[in-house]
Amino acid sequence: MTAAAPATSAGEPLRVETLPTLPGLGALYARGAAASGRIAAGRAMPGLPVIGQGRAAEGDGEARPLTLPDVAHRVTGVPTVDLAHHLHDYQRLLHEPVTDVLPAGYLHVLAFPLATAVMVRGDFPLPLLGMVHLANAVELRGPVVVGDVLEVRAWAENLRPHKRGVQVDLVAEVRRQAEPGGAPVWRGVSTYLAKGFHLPWTGEPDLPAAATGGDGDERAPAGTWTPPLPTGRWALGPGTGRAYGAVSGDRNPIHLSALSAKAFGFPRAIAHGMYTAARALADVGHARGDAYRWTVEFASPVLLPGTIDVAVTPDGDGTGFAYVGWNGRRHRQHFRGAVTPL
Amino acid sequence: MATRKPSDGSPRGSSRTSSRAASPSAPAGVRDAVIVGGNRIPFSRAGKKYADASNQEMFTAALEGLVARFGLQGERIGEVVGGAVLKHSRDFNLIRESVLGSSLSPQTPAFDLQQACATGLEAAITVANKIRLGQIESGIAGGTDTISDAPVAVSEGLRRALLDASHAKTLQARLKAFAKVRPADLKPLSPATDEPRTGLSMGEHQAITTARWGISRSAQDEVALASHQHLAAAWDAGFFDDLVTPFRGLTRDDNLRADTSLEKLASLKPVFGRGLAEPAEPTMTAGNSTPLTDGASTVLLASADWAAERDLPVLARLVDAETAAVDFVHGHDGLLMAPVHAVPRLLARTGLDLGDFDFYEIHEAFASTVLTTLAAWEDADYCKAELGLDTPLGSIDRDRLNVNGSSLAAGHPFAATGGRILATAAKLVAAKAAETGKPARALISVCAAGGLGATAVVESV
Amino acid sequence: MTDSYTKAVNSGFTKTLATKLGLPRPAVLRRFRAGDPLTVGPVLVVSDEASTGDADALARVLLGWGLDVRRQPTDDTRWGAVLLVLTEAERPTDVSAAVLAVGSVLRRLATNGRVVTVSRAAAEGDAPALAAVRNGVDGFLRSLAKELRAGATGNGIVLTDDAAVDAPSVLSTLRFFLSARSAYVDGQLLPVGPADADLPADWDRPLAGQVAVVTGAARGIGAAIAKTLARDGATVVCVDVPAAGEGLARTANAVGGTALQLDVTSDDAGRRILEHARTRHGGLDVVVHNAGILRDKLLANMKPAQWDAVIAVNLEAQLRINDQLLGDGSGDDGVDGLRIVSLASTSGIAGNKGQTNYGFSKAGVIGHTRATAPLAASRGGTANAVAPGFIETEMTSSIPFATREVARRLNSLQQGGQPVDVAEAIAFLASPAAAGVNGQVLRVCGQNLVGR
């Protein structure tokens, strides 16, 4: 069961570190918080050695380039046979039909701890806490069903500047173990922003299109954008973040309660970006088929509780669906994306 | 896709009424299903006269009035079919239980069905089809709905805990099940009338359709005004004397505002479509939208022989019916536009044109529902692209539309509306035929949640 | 609506108490139940000498009805009824022995017993002595009725136009007076003429095959009428205003009839009733004008609407419906053999303070009934009225307690009547065998002390 040698999207080879099982997210957060503290301390006190070859740019010492660990985490033999119950909880929460087929969003949930494990590595140059999820792009090349045994890999790549800091892609891949060496059946790229870091300028910043109106937590001026006719409305209760946190394992405090969110500068708890994207994916329904590309760009956080208008509409050329979510009263975009059958 | 009969080249619509199509006849091996009459209770705005009346009580009352009107005490009816849109779990056999509580023979079978706001009409179509096939000789169709006594569900967390506890064998296990209940789980869940797939209320959906079709506020208010005026006139003329039986002291539909005016309607604040970018001033108000209503209705259908053997009157026959659905989930079509699709298919099968009707009963879920329906039938592009018609379906003579008022004035207890409309249409065509000595015909159109629609043709006998 | 006093003085400790205190003890009236015996005991048939033949003829009829009939008083009998036949008496002295014979058994008249006189009406051309004895029966019976106790009643049949004592209508009237159906009819003399009629095949279903319309059938007396007519075998069309439809449906479903929501004051009410009866039930035999309203006000305070409404519903509607049902006599637009029974009231006979409008309307009913009688008779029908006294209904239950107590005791039976008592009288008048009763007002009042 030798898989193709791992490499980044740009072809740079990666070392493989095989973990015995998918890590638990709770422990990762504890480590992530500690690492974040260390990194923050490193930024505040430039004299302190910082693990990894990059360093924070805000110190008044000389700027050293930030670099990503050239390592891919891998877990093989991940069973899904016992996941049916958890899968169905996810499907109910996200308004997916309850079946034994794993939606792309569920595979994201499955792979997320491994990607997080990369981000809490000692040699990962950016702090886990406070990173902003800017965008996500997923390709599902075929159905993954309960019972499939999977191999999951995750690594970080493509560290690049952003006008508010640096952004990095966390790439995760899922393969069916029955098809070793084949192309991944699922591949997800999560783009995060770490604010307050700088990279040497290498040209135009690679900004997501939708982020031009606001890069995650920046308020876009209201009324400058005219929303389409909605096709749906989501009434998101105060427990939305806790519910998705429970099913995804992503219990980032900004999603859990107003109190814990305030600690990170949000007036109230905010919805998980991937929750909103997965709701939109579910909304597309049967038309997406077994294989599809699913993207999202996050423009502004969705405060909880809250009601947002969404439009999930077929593309003009009929090849897929575009979706956008916004605040119906203030006409401010929260997210937009597309679902394109492959 | 739509296969209309070959056109003779003349424009469709009201101009064709002079050359009336021959009466559609039943297919070979199929006999007529006739409408003997109907009975409903007055419709009441939610939380008023029927605040403590259950669906079963209301439907039983409507049944009892029908039994009394037609002397059906102890009669074994072929089947009673009806339903409620908002239904308690204890009402799993709502219609059968109502039959058992009525003066009908307890040997009368019954079943529940539900097609949202089209429940009543779909029940009548079902009964008529059984009669047409000779499976039954008589049937009662109807529906009932209450907002006042709607079921309130418990949260998913509490529900799971209750189920777990009821399955638990030991006290410890039971306590463990309840220990999982969180304070938030104790909050009851009110029944939602929002579309499950979109989260938009019906009003918001129609606001989108209204915006897309550019229907004006004043046009909607005019439809609402006409509805109230027509319904009030019909009540005053005694039209409902043999269609309605009072209930709980209510003798008339209490949503009816005989004294409303365009000025009063114009003064109301918009309630739907306020979040839309266009139009800047939303158009849908409480005045040109139906209120939440409680009520029940029934219609007695039969074979002609059955009616004749019992010296029962025959108002009309239910000629044919067509249901349709639209893809509204991603905005391809408006939620309430399904009848727009059903009618041309129904006309094609019956060999009729849109102008071949003396009466048009278009359910007024909202004033703009009626207007978008009519606009779509007149729109060449829509008719071509969505209905597959080479020319627009046509326009109707507005003087024949909802002549005795409709849901805006009477109210709309979802499942009860079909029965109200069908009985009204049957009585209208019977009276028209008696007056003119010529057959009279009505087209019925009922839109429904879920992008559904039911339509039917009723003709005098 | 319940007369708790009557209940109290007839049961348990309160009965003993009431007896000791000498309180009036109104009897619990025996009312009709199918299968019960016609009378509560043997029937004594008494007559003056000249009327022996008629008495024998009636005695044979009673035997035919399965009754224990005696021609001589005996000391050890609890009499169920006494029949006094005076048809052929010619002078006042002729009846003395027979009348005193009746008096000799009155103490042994059973609870809910009956005294029925059969006599002939004084007519023009009668000899003075003949007229005297015939009219004397009237005063005798009315007085006797007031002497009877314990739910017993006295009523008289007055033969007119040389009617034979065994004419069908006489027999059906006799049976009505003897039976529990006339529980609250007391002190009444009913003129009965000769008329062709068939006696019912089944005395428990005298209205079998008949189609009857009852107006105001949603509740109260109207509902009781519908139920009684249906019990007697009629198919009942229940009519009431649309606003009363819920109660109307209840009545119609209880009697297996049909409900017709109709305002009797509408111009075409009669035609619509007739059309409904004909198309749905194949014809019309009986119309009961029961619909009526009250708008009590002293005349000084009477508003036009209050006067007009009462006249429109209680009187004009009956007139218009009768016109439409009887037609103009020229063609087939009317109904043959129609029995019309209208609701009058003792208020229309004796008057009542605050009821000038109601009293007018009910006296008007009596007037039009007498005038309609020959019109109906010309098509083989009859028109009669029933005048209820104090009847225990929702309406009378709203009268203040003291007034109500006085009103309900002011009659020979010392109690109010039940709606069914009115209904029984109507069912009797509506029956085919009552063809010889026409243009009459039958009071159902327990021999109310007001008026005649």
UniProtKB/TrEMBL annotation, chain A:
Gene3D superfamilies in the record? Hotdog Thioesterase (3.10.129.10)
Residues in MaoC-like domain copies: 242-316
- Family annotation (Pfam families): MaoC_dehydratas
Disordered: where is this region? 205-230
Which family does the UniProt entry place this protein in?
A: Belongs to the enoyl-CoA hydratase/isomerase family.
Q: What is this protein called?
A: MaoC-like domain-containing protein
Which species expresses this protein natively? Isoptericola peretonis
From TrEMBL, chain B:
Residues annotated as domain Thiolase C-terminal: 313-459
Region (Disordered), start-end ranges: 1-29
**Superkingdom of origin:** Bacteria
| Bias (Low complexity) ranges | 8-29
Keyword terms: Acyltransferase, Transferase
GO: which molecular function terms? acetyl-CoA C-acetyltransferase activity
Q: What is its EC number?
A: 2.3.1.9
Task: Show the InterPro entries listed in the entry.
Answer: 3-ketoacyl-CoA_Thiolase, Thiolase, Thiolase-like, Thiolase_C, Thiolase_N
> Where in this chain does the record put each Thiolase N-terminal domain?
34-304
Fetch the SUPFAM superfamilies from UniProt. Answer: Thiolase-like
Enzyme class, top EC level, equals transferase
Q: Could you say which protein family the record assigns here?
A: Belongs to the thiolase-like superfamily. Thiolase family.
Protein name in the entry: Acetyl-CoA C-acetyltransferase
UniProtKB/TrEMBL annotation, chain C:
Domain of life, per UniProt, equals: Bacteria
Residues in Ketoreductase domain copies: 210-389
Which is one Pfam family of this protein? adh_short_C2
Question: Keywords on this record?
Answer: Oxidoreductase
The reply on keyword Transcription regulation is no
Which E.C. number(s) belong to this protein?
1.1.1.100
**Keyword Heme listed:** no
Q: Which GO terms describe its molecular function?
A: 3-oxoacyl-[acyl-carrier-protein] reductase (NADPH) activity
Name the family: Belongs to the short-chain dehydrogenases/reductases (SDR) family.
Q: Which PANTHER family match?
A: 3-OXOACYL-[ACYL-CARRIER-PROTEIN] REDUCTASE [NADH], SHORT-CHAIN DEHYDROGENASES/REDUCTASES FAMILY MEMBER
Q: What is this protein called?
A: 3-oxoacyl-ACP reductase
Species whose genome carries this gene: Isoptericola peretonis
| Organismal lineage | Bacteria, Bacillati, Actinomycetota, Actinomycetes, Micrococcales
